[in-house]
Amino acid sequence: MFILILKKNFKKAILLTFAFIGLIYFLEDNSSINFFSPEFLLTFLMYLILFAISLDALDKNKLLGLLMSFSLLFLPPAIFPGFAGKLFPLTYGIFIIYLFFTYGLNMFRNWKNNAGL
User: Fold this and answer.
1) Could you state, in order of their start, the residue ranges of all structural domains in the chain?
2) 95-100 LR contacts (CB < 8 Å, sep 24+)
3) pLDDT tier, 34 (very low <50, low <70, confident <90, very high otherwise)
4) Which of 10, 114, 111 is nearest to 56 (CA)?
5) Which member of 19, 53, 104, 112 has the greatest number of CB atoms within 10 A?
């Protein structure tokens, strides 16, 4: 399920990830981006996965997709400096709830189809 979400939204997620990381570096006034540092690669992978999941949610439900996309603004401390480090559990909580909900729906559909209901 997770691999299918990533495959389906890979191109759009890469574009959004580069745009979002560029926005973060613009807001933090960093003049250089080290593309081969471990921090950048970890940040890139994290945002790539989160954007792919939020694009999947946007395909299924517009309001939920917008909520998940907006919640990504809570992760970098440069966007809300007064709440640095306090809002990221909201983002991860929303994404975990969405993934469990879609996984549960898939399990229910599989059970319903195999049980002959």
Assistant:
1) 2-115
2) 95/50, 95/53, 95/54, 95/68, 95/71, 98/53, 98/57, 98/64, 98/68, 99/2, 99/53
3) confident
4) 10
5) 53
pTM of the shown model: 0.83
Cα separation of the two ends of the chain:
23
Predicted pLDDT at 37? 82
Quote the CA–CA distance of 43 and 21 in Å, as a whole number. Answer: 8
pLDDT in tens, 56-101: 999 998 999 899 988 888 888 777 778 777 888 888 899 999 999 9
Longest dimension (CA), the chain: 61
- Report how far residue 14's alpha carbon sits from residue 18's, in angstroms, rounded to the nearest whole number: 6
